[in-house]
Amino acid sequence: MKPFYIVCIGVLLLATSCTDVIEVDVPEGPERLVIEASLDWEKGTQGNNQTIVLSTSTPFFAEQKFAPVLGASVKVINTDTAAEFTFASQNNGEYTTSSFAPIVGDTYQLEVIYNGETYTATETLYPLVDTIEVSQSKDGGEDDEALEVNVTFEDPEGLGDHYFLRFKSQNDLLSELYYIKDEFIDGNEATFYYEKLEGEDSVDEFKPGDVVDVALMGISKQYHDYLRLLVDQYENAGTPFSPTPVPLVGNCVNLDNPNNLAYGYFRVTETIQTEYTFE
After folding, report:
1. For 245, which DSSP code?
2. In DSSP terms, which residues pair with 135 in a beta bridge?
3. What mean pLDDT is reported for the chain?
4. What is the average pLDDT across 140-148?
């Protein structure tokens, strides 16, 4: 048995001596302002309480993944009524107001002043359908034995409506996102489903008692197009022949220095939110 031990020890020493630390050189871009400005007015509420989050981009291997921006000036202006809503800093990257007044059909302009530069973006608050129906079934997805949650709503007549549908299982970290335009559903009832397949991304199928948060939003065409690029890039990441992912540029423009782009998006939406428990 002694020669066997000697061979084993020799192999272990050889394996240890051949181990090197590989340092990956990840290119770092310039630090950018990141604007998370989602003013979502939930049906049935006043919509007066709103929060905008400002941070700066961080290197890939940085220990601090969230770098809050302090001392910025943030306000939103209704360009139809000239009403201004000032967002006060909470000293943690969040800027809040309790006086926002959402008006369907009006246009809103975001203004952020940071490090002496002014960023601005414009969005219109589009109407949303009055109600949605949420149900469960097994016959709409790929697996006729797997539970799925369905959202049904009536699209109004007239092309040009765009929607953002979000499913978030309370058992999962990530949401399932749908960007929808009414090109093929105009004036008709439409149903969209969310199904989790066993073994797909290490998730489990839905089972009775699972809870899913559902949100449907009426959005602008430009936000629909932004979501399409975002979702397509995420879903194609790592697939053969997929294009190299690039930072997505939202609708926030730097008026003083156009080359100093801001990440993120300013949106204003009317929203229906609910949660569904599988029976």
Report:
1. P
2. 150
3. 87
4. 85
90 φ, ψ (degrees, to nearest 5): -105, 10
From 200, 75, 226, select the one nearest 142 (Cα to Cα): 200
**CB neighbourhood size of 123 (10 A):** 22
pLDDT digits (tens, 9 = 90+) for 248-260: 789 999 999 999 9
Which token pair is 250?
């939202």
CB-neighbour burial class of residue 244 (10 A; exposed 0-12, middle 13-18, buried 19+): exposed
Residue whose tokens read 């190299």: 244
Comparing 4-18, 57-71, 152-166, 192-206, which segment has the lowest mean pLDDT? 4-18
Beta strand 33-42 pairing with 262-277: parallel
62's CB contacts (< 8 A; 6+ apart) are: none
Q: Determine the Cα–Cα distance for residues 35 and 54; give it in Å rounded to an integer.
A: 5
Residue type at position 123: E
Amino acid at 225: D
Backbone angles phi, psi at 226, to 5 degrees: -65, -45
**Cα distances (Å, whole numbers) of residue 31 to 55, 56, 120, 194:** 10, 6, 18, 37
Q: Which of 226, 255, 259 is nearest to 38 (CA)?
A: 226
Strand 176-181 relative to strand 253-254, pairing? unpaired
How far, in Å, CA of 266 to CA of 112, rounded? Answer: 11
Q: How many whole angstroms separate alpha carbon 154 and alpha carbon 128?
A: 10
User: Could you tell me the sign of the dihedral formed by the alpha carbons of 89, 105, 41, 160, in that order?
Assistant: negative
**CA proximity to 189, closest of 221, 212, 157:** 157
